[in-house]
Amino acid sequence: QSVLTQPPSESGTPGQTVSISCSGSVSNIGSNAVNWYQQIPGTAPKLLIYEDNQRPSGVPERISGSKSGTSASLAISGLKSEDDAEYFCAAWDDTMDGLVFGTGTKVTVL
Amino acid sequence: QVQLVQSGAEVQKPGSSVKVSCKASGGTFGSHVLTWVRQAPGQGLEWMGGFIPSVATGNSAQKFQDRVTFSAEDSTNTVYMELSSLRSDDTAVYYCARGLLGMSGAFDVWGQGTMVTVSS
């Protein structure tokens, strides 16, 4: 049972910007860093954003993260066909004393 | 660049145990945290716990505390996750991943995944 809520799906055409929300609470997003993952079916997740808005080496600048209060967002600008994938947010939860993942958002590039 | 290589697919009967390995190829685990995440078919990601091989300590999600054991073998740069009292709903792909910043939830290197099927 996920404690971080994401919209089930988002879509956009090539070149557009898509934003994915991740809603949590004081005990997780409100107190700890948010991370974002991309997962293509049949493969392991890939880290896109850590510490709310930091990009690991190799992740393009058109992918960005932000956080405000108990919600976070991932934005993908200049949408490409390769962005067609599932996206998950993740944060430590102080109440559960464990890591929690979002419900996942399927991004479709039309 | 370290890669994580996991053991192959498993089919186990309900009530039995499974032990999945995760080997660091091209380097060592160093002082990184190794975490285990599973994904049931068509479902989201679920954190199972984390383990620091260099000090042989870790923690697990409350849901798995009675059933999961983490261990490491320094000589082969391998960590293990053993899950006992298997049930059908333990059928999932199990991933190991390396922590970028402790147990913050940022995992930068992942294994390829191990499919565990629990069926009578």
Q: How much strand content do the residues of chain A show? A: over 45%
The low-confidence runs of chain B, each spanning 5 or more residues with pLDDT under 50, are none
**Multimeric organization:** heterodimer
The largest inter-chain interface, given as chain pair and residues per side, is: A-B, 27 and 25 residues
Determine the structural class of chain B based on helices, strands and strand pairing: mainly beta
Mean pLDDT of chain A: 97
Estimate the helix proportion of chain A, in percent.
Answer: under 10%
- Bin the strand percentage of chain B: over 45%
Gyration radius of chain B, to the nearest Å? Answer: 13 Å
- Give the helix tally of chain A: 0
Which helices and strands occur, and which strands form pairs?
The complex is a heterodimer of chains A (110) and B (120).
Chain A: E1 9-12, E2 18-23, E3 34-39, E4 46-49, E5 63-68, E6 71-76, E7 85-93, E8 98-101, E9 105-109
Chain B: E1 3-6, E2 10-12, E3 18-25, E4 34-39, E5 46-52, E6 57-60, E7 68-73, E8 78-83, E9 92-99, E10 107-110, E11 114-118
Parallel strand pairs in B: 2-11
Antiparallel strand pairs in B: 1-3, 3-8, 4-5, 4-9, 5-6, 7-8, 9-10, 9-11
Describe this structure in words.
The complex is a heterodimer of chains A (110) and B (120). Chain A has no helices and nine strands. In chain A, strand 3 and strand 4 form a beta hairpin. In chain A, strands 1, 3, 4, 7, 8 and 9 form a six-stranded mixed β-sheet that branches. In chain A, strands 2-6-5 form a three-stranded antiparallel β-sheet, with no helix packed on it. The mean pLDDT of chain A is 97. Chain A is an all-beta fold and 110 residues long. By secondary structure, chain B is mainly beta. Chain B is built from no helices and eleven strands. In chain B, strands 2, 4, 5, 6, 9, 10 and 11 form a seven-stranded mixed β-sheet that branches. Chain B is globular. The chains are: A mainly beta (110), B mainly beta (120). The A-B interface holds A 2, 32-35, 37, 39, 44-47, 50-51, 56, 88, 90-92, 96-104 and B 35, 37, 44-47, 49-50, 59, 61-62, 95, 97, 100-101, 103-108, 110-113.
